[in-house]
Structures are given as structure tokens and as C-alpha cells.
């Protein structure tokens, strides 16, 4: 089955700096990679996703890059703000299955 | 967003009790999921239903019993739980049954086993 590793587990950045979270996956058949943000006491919410036919996707201050050869993908947040503080989860999904495998999460703290 | 609604939000029960968690989605999705979220662990998939049929069961103990009477409702029946079952139980739904669409989560039920 798929295995997703996520690093770092915690990340502190100064407001305005960039944050990068990295994930690796094991099954080369995976071709859908969503990222979720979970604020304290709230539900996980999709913030961005990427499919394997695309190497990079950007949405305002958030971008995701995918390297299928190396089987890793990363979340980039630029100009971080205090409201970006949350736990971020990466995930990988194999087509034809309903199962999504999640990473262990990264707790991001943006210091004002 | 109220697309996926879970009740109750909090539940405290003894190990011999029987209770049920409820999930309802108003998004017209075809697949529904139960996840267990414990501290410092990844989201653990428990059950997947696609078009009301169970398609995945990750060797979950029989004290957890899911039920999906229709595509909008999902239940998790609990019986004789253990203290280690205390966790946040999240329900999610997705549009397709191919695993290529994002999941929409409910707010979860915080379960505490005494």
C-alpha cells in the first residue's frame, strides 16, 4: 500500500517569511496529491491540490510542486501571516481506489 | 461550510455503553469515509463507502460497526470501546469514486472513553 512521509513535524517562521513542507510517497501509481489545512479545533480543509500531469500549481501565496520521478511533492507558503498557523497534511491517492493516504502533519507556527 | 455535518460534536461514554455517531452530507457526493484522528498520528482511514457499498475496511476492530443506509448518511456504531479509542472521529465525503477528488470533512466527534 501507499506510504506518505511528511517533514518537518513542526515549523516556526517569522511573519512574512516563506514556509516549505515536504512529502514523499512510495507508490508510483499515485497521481492525486491534495493538501489540507486544519486549524485548532476545526475540520481539515483542502487548500490546494495537484495531479500528476502537472509539475507545479499556484494559488495566490500557496504553491505546490510535484516531482514524480523522485516521488516527492512540496507545499510552499510565501509571505506568511499569523492566520496561516495550523496543521498541514499532505496526502496521496491512487486512481481507481477511494483511499487517500495522509502524511503525519506539520504544525506551522507563524510568529508575528 | 456545512456540507458535511456530524453529530454529536462531543461524546463521553463508558466502556460498556453503546452509542452511534452520525454523519450527513449535503453535497451530492458518491463516497463517504470514517477517519480516526489521534494526537501525533496521521489520519487513519477506518471505512470507505462508495455508492452505499463498503469498499474498504482497514482491519478495524469489530467494536466499530459502520452503516451507510443511503448516499447522504453514514453512521458509526460503537460498542464496548476501549480507552485507546478516545480520539476525534472525522467523517468525509468526496464527489467521485476514483480517489481523484478532494475530500470534504465534517467537524468531527470528539470521543472520550471512560
Report on this structure.
The complex is a heterodimer of chains A (112) and B (114). By secondary structure, chain A is an all-beta fold. Chain A has strands at 4-7, 10-14, 19-25, 32-38, 45-51, 56-59, 62-67, 72-77, 86-93, 100-102, 106-111. Chain A is built from no helices and eleven strands. In chain A, strands 2, 4, 5, 9, 10 and 11 form a six-stranded mixed sheet that branches. A five-stranded antiparallel sheet of chain A has the order 1-3-8-7-6, with no helix packed on it. The relative contact order of chain A is 0.35. Chain B is 0% helix and 57% strand. The interface between A and B is medium-sized, with 26 and 26 residues.
Which structural class best describes the helix and strand composition of chain A?
Answer: mainly beta
Helix/strand/pairing class of chain B, anyone?
mainly beta
Count of runs of 4 or more consecutive helical residues of chain B: 0
Shape of chain A: globular
Uncertain segments of chain B are none
Give unreliable regions of chain A as ranges.
none
Strand content of chain B: over 45%
Q: Total strand count of chain B, please?
A: 11
Determine the mean pLDDT of chain A: 94
Percent of residues in helices of chain B comes to: under 10%
Instruction: Let me know the average pLDDT of chain B.
Output: 90
**Proportion in helices of chain A:** under 10%
Q: Rg of chain B to the nearest angstrom?
A: 13 Å
Q: Biggest β-sheet of chain B, characterized?
A: 7 strands, mixed
Shape call of chain B: globular
Short description:
The complex is a heterodimer of chains A (112) and B (114). With 112 residues, chain A is mainly beta. Chain A is built from no helices and eleven strands.
Key phrases:
heterodimer, A: 112 residues, mainly beta, 6-stranded mixed beta sheet, 0% helix, globular, B: 114 residues, 4-stranded antiparallel beta sheet
Amino acid at each position: 500500500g501507499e506510504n506518505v512521509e511528511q517533514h518537518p513535524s513542526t515549523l516556526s517562521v517569522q511573519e512574512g517569511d516563506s514556509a516549505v513542507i515536504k512529502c514523499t510517497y512510495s507508490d508510483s501509481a499515485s497521481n492525486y496529491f491534495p493538501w489540507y489545512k486544519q486549524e485548532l479545533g476545526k475540520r481539515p480543509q483542502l487548500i490546494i491540490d495537484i495531479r500528476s500531469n502537472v509539475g507545479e500549481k499556484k494559488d495566490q501565496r500557496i504553491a505546490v510542486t510535484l516531482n514524480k520521478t523522485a516521488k516527492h511533492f512540496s507545499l510552499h507558503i510565501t509571505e506568511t501571516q499569523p492566520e496561516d498557523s495550523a496543521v498541514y497534511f499532505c496526502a496521496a491517492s491512487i486512481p481507481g481506489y477511494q483511499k487517500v493516504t495522509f502524511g503525519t502533519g506539520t504544525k506551522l507556527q507563524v510568529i508575528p | 461550510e456545512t456540507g458535511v455535518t456530524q453529530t454529536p460534536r462531543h461524546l463521553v461514554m463508558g466502556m460498556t455503553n453503546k452509542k452511534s455517531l452520525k454523519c450527513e452530507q449535503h453535497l451530492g457526493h458518491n463516497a463517504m469515509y470514517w477517519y480516526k484522528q489521534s494526537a501525533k498520528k496521521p489520519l487513519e482511514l477506518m471505512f470507505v463507502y462508495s455508492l452505499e457499498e463498503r469498499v474498504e475496511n482497514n482491519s478495524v476492530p469489530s467494536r466499530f460497526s459502520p452503516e451507510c443506509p443511503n448516499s447522504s448518511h453514514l453512521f458509526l456504531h460503537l460498542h464496548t470501546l476501549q480507552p485507546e479509542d478516545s480520539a476525534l472521529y472525522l467523517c468525509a465525503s468526496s464527489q467521485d469514486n476514483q480517489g481523484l477528488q478532494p475530500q470534504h470533512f465534517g467537524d468531527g466527534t470528539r470521543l472520550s472513553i471512560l
